[in-house]
Design a protein that fits this description.
By secondary structure, the chain is of the alpha+beta class. 57% of the residues lie in helices and 7% in strands.
């Protein structure tokens, strides 16, 4: 082991304990970029802390930098970014300086007594926004029970109908991930030490170089015989000769091919069983729960000028009588065409927001749920709102009678009193397609499986052809933005990041900091673009928008993940220039000692990237950045602008860009602006489902590389599934706002992707190991092996698609089994209905119906004796009182309750210790008590206990 004088430095192989090379002083980094320091004391090539250094004079000083790097004060910096890095440093310091200046300026304004003239009004709007955020979360509402509102426990059963069957299907999917993780762990554990892999491979955590250096540092022999010390860790080298290692590696490859082939078959069988179980779950869920979709069918092809609900109801009753269907019609909910005009659409929803705000204040005044000061403020606000409501009334009346009369979309939801009525209609329609005719024109009958809140009422007038065209336009817009972002990213990676990686280091400094800030903003814009594009397509139902969101979001996340994975692989390969010269072909050749060490490091690096980062840290960062930070930001910015007004007006206008749903001015902050701006993000199953595909896919991808971490990664996949189940329950039931997922369309799409991406990848991995073991195409050229991989992947996808088509032979959703249910009872349970979710129909009941009844002398008399629905001959949009108009909106369910129940509804607000808003509310209340000198120093801790949240009944 004595190296010759012309290359005296010993360079241990970083992967194999019995392989060494001798290097000249200037060539230590040629075989391993991480060892550029020729340590003359021990005659070893050692590590150096200087990024981009080719030859180090000591462990912290560089003598010669790699090509493309410039030496600067004993360090190395990328030559192309010398000026840019300095400029970015200036930019970073300027940004920090501006932030400090703004903070000081804000303090100055506050100390001078600056305050908005509408500070009290705006503060109450902010408080209303916080309350709305709290009430918009998932609650169990009970119109006629003693406790109107309660929280669902985190351990609630999947079979309970909280927000539709989609939630239960999603949690079943997480449970299936546990099964996937267990099967993968068993398979990878069997081959973990196949062929003596642990004996062959070097531990990435404690390298042979560390062992050698430790041995050399403890010896007291003379320098000329120091290399002999390396014999101590080589006493077992007789079993790990290069020839022996090569033979063992072939055994490793063969065992992996067999194990992953068996794993593919096992996962395929279990996946098909699971998909069939999901189908059974959806059917059973529909049979055991009653919801609004059980009472409704969709009529299509009606005249667009047919907008008289009473006349349409009578026509439907007559048609059913002709077909001898003895079922009572509850009413019809006409789809009005108001979404084509953007101004009209927003006018409709603005009217409903003002109506809800006025109703909330009226209920508060009647129920006396506030203190005297707030009651006075509420009366003033109600007076202002009533002026706006009066204007809305005159404008809305024109939509139902006059030249500006709204037309229908040709669609109407026929609502039956009993759930068996829907089943009878669908059975009769399948047997006789001309069940309904209007003016001798056949009317189509469509299955309804979505709930009323899942209907995009403003989009019902958009034709299917237009939706298909809009889908491609939306994909094109998102793709353009995605390509633009990745061109910027790839340019930065190509000219900044990759040169550092090629030199065995990581880029850092002000340039990377500024780049991180910019990319964070751009990616945030991309996420917003994806969300807005989905709702701009014009889908009639939310479940179709969810499928589009999942597909687009998964595609983007998949691309970004694999870009990150490939950059990581490049970073590892670049540390061994001699092996890296082979390119990607090294991963398609038979497994050999030439590449296996580098592959092991690739596998270990990917393991470190996935755990805990992607599997555990990413969800927690999503909770922080997607929920806590936006809420705190909205509260702080709203206070700065509309309460404290502690900056010059021009700066306040600039700051307003950070406040969602901000008004056009910086003086008055209305209640509906605060409610929309502070509400928590909806439960996003399209994003949550992406994790169920992407994380197993990332773990399966690491199986293409030799690694001793495969079984550990698989075990962590099981741990992640358990963690993600609890995390999702917490997010859905305590953090995010309510969103209904009433069909299994999204779930079906997700598992189609599962079989065509992660599952097919396992089959491809098994084939890859087969030819790396020399079992298939042993001496074939690279292109033939690549073709074989692609064919294997395509066949795996085909097997899955054909199997799924066998389980779901029809593209149309199946009709649910008949189950006796009553419309009135169902409405009491769910609050929403096909009437109070229809925005235009609600305005019709609110502003047109009273005028219509008053214009009729008979109507005036009947209205005094009967309810509006009995006088009109059709149900109105209402809550628990069938004679009072109400509009259903998540977070506003309490408006459907009587004033007497409002105190019970508010009980326990901001007492749940699992909600971070609880702590903010208590801090604000306690700070207000201190500010008003209501807390003395003597009873500080005693008073503090009164503000602690309730830690009971969390689960």
């Amino acid at each position: 082991m004595q190296c010759p004088d012309e290359c005296p430095f010993l360079a241990p192989d970083p992967f194999f304990p019995c392989m060494f090379s001798c290097r000249a002083k200037a060539r230590c980094s040629e075989s391993n970029l991480n060892t550029p320091f020729p340590d003359e004391k021990y005659l070893l090539c050692s590590a150096c802390s200087v990024a981009g250094c080719k030859v180090c004079s000591d462990a912290g000083t560089c003598d010669e930098c790699h090509d493309g790097f410039a030496e600067m004060d004993g360090g190395c910096i990328l030559a192309s970014t010398v000026g840019l890095n300095s400029a970015m440093g200036v930019v970073l310091y300027v940004l920090i300086g501006l932030i400090v200046l703004l903070v000081l300026m804000a303090f100055g304004y506050c100390l001078s007594g600056s305050r908005s003239p509408n500070a009290e009004h705006n503060q109450r709007s902010i408080d209303a926004g916080r309350k709305h955020r709290h009430l918009s979360k998932v609650n169990r509402w009970d119109l006629f029970g003693k406790t109107p509102r309660t929280k669902y426990p985190l351990a609630v059963s999947n079979s309970e109908n909280i927000m539709g069957m989609g939630i239960g299907l999603f949690y079943n999917g997480i449970r299936f991930m546990v099964v996937v993780g267990v099967l993968t762990t068993l398979s990878s554990y069997i081959v973990a030490d196949s062929g003596g892999l642990y004996e062959i491979m070097q531990s990435p955590d404690f390298t042979r170089l560390d062992m050698l250096l430790k041995a050399l540092m403890t010896t007291k022999m003379k320098n000329n015989i120091i290399p002999a010390v390396v014999l101590s860790p080589m006493t077992s080298c007789s079993t790990t000769t290069p020839e022996g290692i090569q033979a063992k590696l072939q055994s490793v490859a063969a065992s992996r091919a067999l194990a992953f082939g068996v794993l593919y078959v096992g996962l395929l069988a279990s996946s098909l069983y699971f998909v069939a179980a999901q189908k059974r779950f959806a059917k059973r869920f529909d049979e055991e729960s009653t919801s609004m979709s059980d009472f409704c069918v969709l009529l299509k092809g009606l005249p667009t000028d047919l907008t008289d609900e009473v006349a349409l109801k009578k026509w439907a009753e007559a048609q059913l009588a002709q077909s001898r269907i003895d079922s009572e019609v509850q009413g019809v909910s006409i789809g009005y065409d108001f979404g084509g005009d953007e101004a009209l659409k927003w006018e409709v929803y603005d009217m409903l927001d003002r109506f809800c705000s006025a109703t909330e204040i009226e209920i508060m005044l009647k129920g006396k749920t506030a203190d005297a000061q707030e009651m006075e403020f509420a009366k003033e606000s109600l007076g202002n709102l009533k002026e706006d409501v009066a204007k809305d009334r005159s404008k809305a009346q024109e939509w139902f009678d006059g030249e500006k009369k709204l037309k229908g979309t040709g669609q109407a939801f026929l609502v039956m009193t009993k759930s068996t009525g829907k089943d009878a209609i669908m059975q009769a329609y399948r047997a006789k397609e001309s069940l309904f005719t209007y003016q001798q024109k056949p009317i189509q009958v469509g299955e309804v499986n979505s709930e009323p809140p899942d209907i995009c009422w403003e989009n019902l007038g958009i034709a299917d052809a237009a939706i298909a065209s809009n889908e491609w336009k939306a994909v094109g817009q998102v793709l353009q933005m995605f390509i633009f972002i990745n061109v910027l990213t790839m340019g930065f990676n190509l000219y900044v990041v990759m040169p550092y990686l090629a030199a065995g280091s990581n880029a850092s400094g002000p340039l990377m900091t500024v780049n991180g800030i910019i990319m964070g903003i751009i990616n945030g814009q991309l996420g917003g673009k994806v969300w807005n594009s989905a709702w701009g397509v014009g889908y009639h139902r939310k479940d179709r928008a969810d499928v589009w969101l999942f597909n687009v979001n998964f595609a983007i996340t998949l691309c970004n993940t694999f870009i990150s994975l490939f950059m990581t692989i490049y970073a590892v390969i670049a540390t061994d220039p001699e092996v890296a010269a082979e390119g990607v072909g090294m991963f398609f050749k038979e497994l050999s000692t030439t590449t296996v060490g580098l592959e092991s490091t690739v596998g270990h690096t990917l393991f470190m990237m996935l755990i805990p980062g992607q599997l555990f840290v990413n969800p927690l960062m999503g909770y922080l950045q997607g929920n806590i930070v936006p809420f705190l930001q909205a509260n702080l910015v709203a206070k700065i602008i509309y309460v404290w007004k502690c900056l010059p007006e021009k700066l306040l206008f600039l700051l307003k860009a950070l406040l969602p749903w901000s008004p056009d001015n910086v003086d008055k902050y209305e209640r509906r602006n605060a409610e929309n701006g502070m509400v928590a993000g909806q439960i996003g199953l399209p994003w949550d489902y992406s994790n169920l595909i992407l994380n197993p896919l990332s773990v399966f991808f690491t199986f293409f590389f030799v690694s001793t971490n495969s079984s550990t990664e698989s075990a962590y996949l099981v741990a992640w599934a358990v963690f993600f189940f609890m995390y999702s329950r917490f997010m859905h039931l305590r953090v995010q706002s309510v969103a209904f997922h009433s069909t299994h369309k999204l779930d079906r799409s997700v598992w189609m992707v599962w079989g065509c991406v992660p599952l097919a990848l396992i089959g491809t991995c098994a084939m890859t190991w087969a030819f790396r073991a020399g079992l298939v195409l042993k001496h074939a050229p690279l292109w033939q092996k690549v073709v074989l991989m692609l064919v294997t992947y395509a066949l795996s996808c085909l097997v899955w698609v054909l199997s799924l088509r066998a389980l779901y032979p029809l593209l149309k959703e199946e009709s649910p089994d008949a189950r006796e249910g009553d419309f009135t009872e169902c409405k009491r349970e769910w609050i929403f209905s096909w009437f109070n979710c229809n925005p235009v129909f609600t305005l019709k009941c609110l502003y047109y119906l009273p005028k219509f009844l008053q214009d009729s002398e008979l109507g005036k008399v009947k209205e005094k004796l009967l309810k509006k629905k009995d006088v009109w001959g059709h149900p109105i949009a209402c809550g628990d009182d069938e004679d009072v108009v109400r509009y259903f909106k998540p977070g506003k369910e309490f408006l459907h309750f009587s004033p007497e129940k409002q105190k019970s509804i508010r009980e326990g607000d901001f007492q749940d210790w699992l909600e971070f808003e609880t702590y903010l509310a208590h801090i604000n209340r306690f700070a207000e008590q201190v500010r008003q000198n209501k807390v003395n120093s003597g009873d500080f801790y005693e008073k503090l206990e009164d503000f602690l949240p309730n830690f009971d009944d969390a689960f």
